[in-house]
Write a structure and sequence with these properties.
alpha/beta; Spore Coat Polysaccharide Biosynthesis Protein SpsA, Chain A; 2 domains; 8-stranded mixed β-sheet; 8 strands
């Protein structure tokens, strides 16, 4: 590790067709009060003007931005490719459609170095036209709580809400690339198994953009299944951190998102996702009698499932009008 700059933060940014947002994201890096940093952008085979925008900004800020290219392979492959070229002793991740508060890296770095921690994390806020909840969120202090239970329940932070020591990232061999939507969550769970020292910065410093992504958006059922898969892998490979939870509590945490997400997709009329999620809930979730009509209907062929759900909704709406 001697060839890494001990003060440098390497910011890793995958970029795929992010032309409307990438300049704002890069500007938020360049405006960081913490000065010793490098930005490594990996263009993941963009077909829009993303690469040209990054090239222009790199030319305007020589020595601060490195632009790499790869054929379209997904964000986790892009992050791993960037890590191979990073020179910093600290690693931060910022996607090309997100941004930071100007104090973000300075305050995360100060907290990490003051406490000799491996990981520093902060609060965040969802932004953008598809952000359903835009309230600022401060995560719990994992040092003072049951971190294993909280990590199993949900991903502990967005990818731009954390600063890590390079040694920890290398020890974990970077990101796995086996699932399309949950490999940051997988990294945090594998990190938890190493028992790192973590420190919280109780300020909102990261902004996570949510916006309509059209036909390229990964369906909600796949996102839920991927998150469950990484939880299952963590429990199977690292039983010690979750042994205190007991089988019933552990399964509730691993599979607890199935029914709420199934109903959420149902009310949003995402019938393909709701059908798949209800079917998985039948096998894994702690469902009740009131859930039975939805779960049993999910085993029908898709057209019949959609028809039956509409009939159930119509009956309920008619009762509500009485």
């Amino acid at each position: 590790m001697d060839h890494f700059d001990p003060a440098l933060i390497s910011v890793v940014m995958p970029c795929y067709n992010a032309a409307p947002f990438v300049e704002e994201a890069i500007t938020s890096v360049l405006q960081q009060r913490y000065a010793p940093l490098e930005l490594i952008v990996v263009d993941d085979g963009s077909t829009d003007a993303s690469a040209q925008i990054v090239e222009r900004l790199a030319a305007a800020h020589p020595g601060r931005i490195t632009l790499l290219h790869q054929t379209n392979s997904g964000p986790y492959a892009a992050r791993n490719y960037a890590l191979e070229h990073a020179h910093g002793n600290f690693i931060a991740f910022l996607d090309a459609d997100d941004r930071w508060h100007p104090e973000a890296l300075a305050r995360l770095h100060a907290a990490m170095t003051d406490t000799v921690a491996d990981v520093a994390y902060c609060g965040w806020q969802n932004v953008g036209e598809a952000a359903g909840n835009t309230q600022a969120y401060l995560p719990p202090n994992y040092v003072e709580s049951d971190a294993a239970a909280l990590f199993l329940q949900s991903c502990p932070w967005p990818i731009n809400g954390v600063l890590l020591r390079r040694q920890l990232v290398d020890r974990l061999n970077g990101f796995s690339e086996r699932l399309p939507t949950a490999m940051d969550y997988d990294l945090w769970l594998r990190m938890l198994a190493t028992q790192p020292t973590v420190v919280r910065v109780p300020e909102v410093l990261a902004f996570y953009r949510r916006y309509p992504r059209g036909n390229a958006h990964i369906p909600r059922w796949r996102q839920v299944f991927d998150a469950i898969a990484v939880r299952e892998t963590f429990v199977r490979r690292h039983p010690e951190p979750v042994a205190h939870l007991g089988r019933e509590k552990r399964d509730a945490l691993v599979y607890g998102s199935l029914l709420p997400e199934a109903y959420r997709c149902h009310w949003r009329r995402d019938t393909d996702s709701s059908r798949r999620l209800f079917r998985r809930a039948f096998l894994k979730a702690d469902w009740k009698a009131r859930d039975a009509k939805y779960i049993l209907a999910s085993f029908l062929p898709a057209p019949f499932f959609e028809l039956l759900i509409r009939l159930v909704d119509n009956v309920r709406n008619a009762r509500n009008r009485i």
